Amino acid sequence: MSGQGRFTQSRALGWLQRIEAFLRGRGKITHDAQSRSFVNTELEAEHLFVLVHGISGAASQMFEIGSLIAKTHDRVYVHYATSNDLIALTMDGIDIGGERLACEVLNICQRLMNIRYISFIAHSMGGLYARYCIGRLYEQNFFQYIRPINFITLATPHVGSRRPLDTVVGIINNIICRCILSTTGRQLILLDHEESPLLLQMTELDGPHMKGLSLFTVRVAYANITGDFAVKYGTSAITSSMPSPDLFVSSAHGRFPHVIMCEDVPPRVPVVVGAKEVTVSEALADNMNTEVLPQNTQEKKVTHYEDMGTTDPKQQLVVQMLRSLQTMSWRKVTVRLDSRFLSHIRIIQTLPSWRGTTHDVAQHLVENLILCP
C-alpha cells in the first residue's frame, strides 16, 4: 500500500512490536489515548464492540448506540475509539487514522483476555478507518484468534465523496475536500494518487482489506436517503441507483418509523474492469447494479446514483470500487429522517427536534446485532 511508505522506520517497528506482543498473548501494548468504555462485567466480556466516530468527531457522538448495546446485551464490552478524537488527527489520512485505530484495538484486546468476538460500528469516515484497520489486523492473522462478527457503518462514504466536476456543487465540494480537509480530503475525492488512490487499493479483491472484511458474519450499511449533504446515498449504501425518496413517504411503520427499507443484498459476480473499458452508462445499465425494491415499489421510478457523472474520468474508479464491494453480501438499511440538513449527525445522535428523534435507528441497529453465532 502506498500509505505505508509514509511511516517512519521507528513507527513501523512499534507496530510490529505491538503485533508480536499481542500474538504472544502476554506482552505489553501501550497507547496514549485514554480508554472510555462501557462494559457489563469486564472479566466476563466475550464480545468486543468498537465504536468509531467520523471526521472532526468525538467518541461521545457514539454514546447513544453504545449505551443501548451495553444495556441490552450481556457479556459485551463497548469501547469508544479515541485514537482519532482530535480534529487534526482526522485530517492526516485514512491510512494513518486506520493505523492508529488498529493499535487501539490491539491495546484493548491485550487487556481483555477473554474476548472471543469483535464487531465494528462506525459513523461517517469512521467506517473507512475501520475498513483500513481490518486490513491491517488481517495481515497479522488477528482474526485467527478473535472472530469478526458485525461490521456496521452509518452514513459512510465507502467509495469516496467525489462529485461531478460539471456542477457548481461538485466543484465546491472537491475544493473543500482538497484544500480544507488536507490529506484525508484528497483521499476522499481520489486525488491522492493518479492511478491507484487509497480507496481503490482498499477494494482490491485480493487485498487484505477486502479479505478481512469478507470474514465478518454480517456487513450492514445504514444510509440516509435525504438531508445528508456530507455523504450521499449512493456511496453510503454502496449502490449505483437511488430510489426516489417520494416512494417511501408512507413506507415507514411500526417501531422504527425512520427505517424505511431493509434488504439483504446477495454478493454479485466480480467483474474485471481493466480487461475491457466499461463506461459509466454501461455500469448503470448492468444487471449486477439493478437494485431490488420493496414489492410495492417495483414499478416505480428509480433515479441513478447522482454522483455518477460522465464528464469526470475519476468516476470510472468509483464504478470499479462499487463492483468490488458488491462482490460480498450486504444488508442495506435506508433511513429517512425528518431533517433537511442534519441527517448526517442525527443518524447516530438524538438532537432536539419538534418533529421527533432518531432513537429508533439506534434501537433498530442494536436489536439486529449478532452476538455469538
Automatic annotation (TrEMBL):
Pfam short name (any one): DUF676
InterPro entries: AB_hydrolase_fold (IPR029058), DUF676_lipase-like (IPR007751), Lipase-like (IPR044294)
Positions of the DUF676 domain: 44-235
Name of the featured protein: Lipid particle protein
Organism lineage: Eukaryota, Amoebozoa, Evosea, Variosea, Cavosteliida
Gene3D superfamilies: alpha/beta hydrolase
Species per Swiss-Prot/TrEMBL record: Planoprotostelium fungivorum
